[in-house]
Amino acid sequence: MPEIGRLATCLALLFAVYAVAASIGGALRRRGQLVRSGEHAAYVVFGLVLAAAAILVRALLQHDFSLEYVAAYSSSTLPAHYAFAALWGGQKGSLLFWALLLSGFSAVVHLQNRQKNRELMPWVTATLMTVAAFFLSLCVFVTDPFERMPVPATEGRDLNPLLQNYWMMIHPPSLYLGYVSASVPFAFAIAALVAGRLGDQWIRTTRRWALFSWAFLSLGNLLGARWAYEVLGWGGYWAWDPVENAAFMPWLVSTAYLHSVMIQEKKDMLRVWNMVLVLLTFSLTIFGTFLTRSGVISSVHSFTQSGLGPFFIAFLLLVLTVGGALLVYRLPELRTQATVESFLSRESAFLFNNLVLVGIAFATFWGTVFPVLSEWVRGVKITVGPPFFNRVNAPLGIALLFLAGVGPIIAWRRASPKNLRRAFVAPVTTGLVAAAVLALAGVPLGYAHTTFALACFVLATVVQEFWRGMRARQAMLGEGPARALGRLVGKNRRRYGGYIVHVGIVAIFVGIAASNAFRIESTQALRPGETMDVGKFTLRYDRIATEEDAHLSRVTALVSVSAGGTPLGTLGPEKRFYKKPQQPTTEVAIRPTLSEDLYLVLGSYDPPSGVATIQAYVNPLVAWLWIGGLLMGIGTVITMWPSALERRAPAYELGGAEVAAD
Amino acid sequence: MLNKRRFIVGAALIAAAVSYLVYAGIRTSSMYYFELEEFLAQRDAHPGESMRVKGWVRPGSIRWDPQTNDLAFELARQDGSDPVPVAYRGILPDMFAAGREVVVEGRYGGGALAARQILTSCPSKYEPADARTAETPS
Predict the structure, then answer these.
(1) Is residue A22 classed exposed, middle or buried when 0-12, 13-18 and 19+ CB atoms within 10 A define those classes?
(2) Contacts A–B by Cβ distance under 8 A
(3) In chain B, which residues have their Cβ closer than 8 Å to the Cβ of A356?
(4) Contacts of residue A605 in chain B, CB cutoff 8 Å?
(5) Beta bridge partners of A592
(6) Of A447, A503, A609, B131, which has the fewest beta carbons less than 10 angstroms from its beta carbon?
(7) pLDDT band per the 50, 70, 90 thresholds, residue B123
(8) B7 vs A340: CB contact, 8 Å cut-off?
(9) Per DSSP, what are the bridge partners of residue A448?
C-alpha cells in the first residue's frame, strides 16, 4: 500500500508539471484545448494527492510501523483522532498536507472559473501547479512520507504528548488553510500581471479567497495562542517565538491588503501597492512554512535542522524574482492618475494603516531573522527576545488602533470641518472621558491606559455608525429599530461585517494590554494546609492526589481557592508523566472569568516532605482575546455572505466586458 | 503635487519611526547566543552581559531542591567535558533532564552562569510547538 502512495505522489508531480506546461503552451499559442487539458491535469493532481494522503492516514490508523513516518509520530496506544492528526504532526506529513490543500483549492478555483476569467485562467493554473510541483517534489525527492524503515519497528515513538491536545487537532490545519489559500490571490495576481489585465477583476474574483485566507490565519494564530496558554504552562499566550512570528507576519500583510483593496475598488489607486502586498503575503506564507519546517532560525528552540532550507530559499527567490520582474514590467500600465488629495481623508487613513501594518510585519521579520543576519554579518549570533518585539510593536499597535477608529468614519477625498465635527465629536469625547475616568480610577498612565481609551474611541465610532445607519432607515423607510438594524447590516455586509471584526480586534487589544500590564505572579513552595495570596485570591494547598494508568501517571495538587473569605471551589494543577516517550508535562488549571483568569501551575512536588511549589498567575481580561476572536469570526462570516444580488446572478463578479469567449 | 510630497514625507516619517524602534529595540534587548565552544572562548570578554549559551546537561551534576526550587547543574559538551556550573532558581522545565540539550539564558560571572531562564527542547524530534515548552519570557 505505501508503494501506491509513493507512486501517487510521483504521478501527481508529473501531472502538475504537465499542467504548468500545457497551460502556458495553450495560453501562448491560444489553444483552448491545451488550456483545458492543463486544467484537467490539475484535477488529477488533486485526486492523486488525496489518494496519497488517504494511504498515509490509513497507515497511521493501522499502526504500520514499517513506515518511518508512522513509527516516528504515532504508537499503537495513540488514540485514533491523534493518529489522524499525526498527518500534519511531523515534517514529511505536513508537506504532503500542504500539497493536498493546495491541489484541493486549485480544483475549487478551476470549478469556479470554468466559464469565467478565461484570459487569466491558464496563468492561474500554471502558478498554482508550480507551487504544487514544488511541494510535491519535496515529498518525492527530499522528505518522502512513505519511506520504509530498514527494519520495521515493533512500536512507534508516539506523538509528542504536548501535541496530544484538542487545540493541536485544529490549530495546525487552520493555519495551513490560511497559508495555502493565500496562494489563490497570488496566482490571480501573477495571472493579471502576465495577461496584462490590471484592472480590479482579479481582486474581485479573489476577494473571498483573500478573506478566507485571512480568517483562517486569524483563527490559526488565536488557536495557537490558546494552545500555548493552556498547554505550555508559563502563564502567557504569546512568546514571539519564530514559529509564532511565522504565522503572524502573513496575517499582518494580509490585513493590510484587505484594507488597501478597498481603496483600489473605490478610487482606482494603489494598484502597484496591492500587487506588492499579495506577492508579499504569499512569500511570507512560504517563508513561514520554511521557518517552521527548516529550523534554521528557531535553532534556539528547536535544535534539529533539516536539509529543506536551501529548497525553500531557492523557491522563495524564484517567487520574488518572477513576481518582482513582472511587476516592474507592468509598472507603466499599473500607474494611475489618481492621488490622495488630503491628509484628512479616508484614503490617507487607509494608507497609513497599511504602512503601520507593514511596519509591524517588518519589525517582526527583522527580530525573527536577526540571529541569522548577525551571524552572517558579524560572525556572532545575537538574539532578541520578547522584550524587543513588545517594545517595538506596542507603539505601532497603538497607532493602528487609533487608525482603526479614524479610517471608517473620515470622509473620502478631503474631510471638511463639518464632516470632522459630525464624525468625530462623539467618539473623541467618549475616548477622552474614558481616559479621564480610567486615570481617576487608578489605572496608571501608559500603554494599557492609552489602549483602553482608544478602545473606547473605536467602539464609539462603531456604535455611532450603527446608530446613524439605523436611524436613517427608520426615518426614511419607517422600519422598526430591530428591523432597521438587521436590514442595515444585511444590505451592507462588507461594511458592517467589517465593523464587527473591528470590535473583535478592539477586544483583543484590550485583552493583550491588560494581561501584559496588570498580570500578577507569585510562586511559593507550600506544605499541605498552607496558604498563599495572589491578587485578590487566597490559595490553600490541601493535598496531593496521584493516579496511574497504562499511558501515564498524574500528580494533582488540590488547591482551594477563595477570595475575600468566599470559597470559589477547588483547582487541580497537574504534573503528568507520560510513559512513552518518558516525559513529564504540565497541566495547568485555569479558573476563567470575564474579568480575570486565575492560572495555576504545579511547579514541582517533593513526595517525602509533601511540599508542592505552586506557581500562580492572575491574568486580567484574557478571556477577551477569545471573545474578540469569536466576534472577528462572526464579522468575517457576515462580510463573506453572498448578497441576494450575487446569489441571483452569479455573473455579477465577471466584470462585464472582461468575460472572454473561449 | 504638493500633496504627493507631503505623503512621501508622512510615509518616510512612519518608516523612520519603525526603523528607530527596531534599532533602539535591538540595542536594548539583544543578547549573544553562544554555542558552548564559543562561550568557552569568549566568556571573559562579556562579564555581566546577558547571553544565551547552548550546551548539554552533564549527567550526574544535577542538584535540585524541590522545597526551595534551587537548581544547580553543569553545562558541558555532549561528552560531559568542559563543565560550567549553572545556578537557577525557579520551576524546573518539563524537558529538563540529564544529557539533554538546553539553552541557558543568564549572566556569567565568578566562574558560573547565573541563569534567569532555561530553554529546553524535545530531543531528536522537531516540532515547532514543543520547542517552546519551557520558555518563560523574562
Answers:
(1) buried
(2) 194
(3) 14
(4) 66
(5) A597
(6) A609
(7) very low
(8) yes
(9) none
The amino acid present at A553, given as its one-letter code, is S
Render A252-294 in DSSP notation, one character per residue.
Answer: HHHHHHHHHHHHHHHH---HHHHHHHHHHHHHHHHHHHHHHHH
CA-based torsion, A208, A209, A214, A217: positive or negative: positive
With beta carbons under 8 A apart, name residues in chain A contacting B131: 241, 243, 298, 301-302
**Do residues A553 and A547 make contact, with C-beta atoms less than 8 angstroms apart?**
yes
Q: What is the residue whose three cell numbers read 543576519? A: A373
Instruction: Give the separation between CA A343 and CA A234, rounded to whole angstroms.
Output: 44
- State how far the Cα of A297 lies from the Cα of B25, in Å rounded to an integer: 19
Chain segment A193-246, per-residue pLDDT in tens: 999 999 888 999 999 999 999 999 999 999 999 988 998 888 899 989 888 899
pLDDT tens for each residue of A87-129: 988 888 999 999 999 999 999 999 999 999 999 999 999 999 9
Phi-psi region of A415 (alpha: psi -120 to 50; beta: other; left: phi over 0): beta
Torsion of CA A647, A650, A655, A656, to 10 degrees: -120
* A109-113, A658-662, B31-35, range with the lowest pLDDT: A658-662
- Contact list, B133 vs chain A (CB under 8 Å): 162, 232
Nearest to A303 among B26, B101, B128 (CB): B101
Q: Considering Cα of B16, then B20, then B23, then B25, what sign does the dihedral take?
A: negative
Give per-residue pLDDT as tens, A407-453. Answer: 999 988 888 899 899 999 999 999 999 999 999 999 999 999 999 99
- Residue A639, min C-alpha distance to chain B (Å): 30
